[in-house]
Design a protein that fits this description.
The protein is about 45% helix and about 15% strand. It is of the alpha+beta class. It has one domain: Glutaredoxin (3-Layer(aba) Sandwich). It has a four-stranded mixed sheet with strand order 2-1-3-4, covered by helices on one side. Helix 2 crosses helix 5.
């Protein structure tokens, strides 16, 4: 089993995901979004399943700092903003093959392990 986790080390939910898989000895590939942004293809994959609005963390400090509270953009523009400003993504973004989750989804992760 191979799992890819997108997030930031300072984020508590990302640390929970890393710890969850580490405790179960599951190989993970961690992509630190502060070092390297997620590709447009990866973000599009999550957006197609959950919608672009599900990727945006409207409670993040960076979201307020950028003044995006009143922004009304289309999906393409939001994807570009998320690529440029990864700190406004809901974290962690977790991928196992074609299965995807946003945020801490331990019940879904457990089902991956059971399969």
């Amino acid at each position: 089993m191979d799992v890819q986790i997108f997030g930031v080390k300072k984020n508590a939910e990302t640390r929970k995901a890393l710890r969850f898989f580490a405790e179960r000895r599951v190989k993970t590939h961690f992509v630190d979004l502060q070092e390297r942004a997620a590709s447009r293809g990866e973000l599009t994959r999550f957006a197609q399943k959950f919608g672009v609005s599900a990727l945006v963390d409207v409670t993040s400090k960076r979201f307020d700092d950028l003044g995006l509270r009143t922004a009304r953009y289309g999906d393409e523009r939001w994807l570009q903003i998320l690529m440029d400003e990864p700190l406004i993504l809901k974290m962690p973004l977790v991928r196992h093959g074609n299965a995807l989750t946003i945020g801490a989804a331990e019940t879904t992760w457990k089902s991956w392990l059971a399969a």
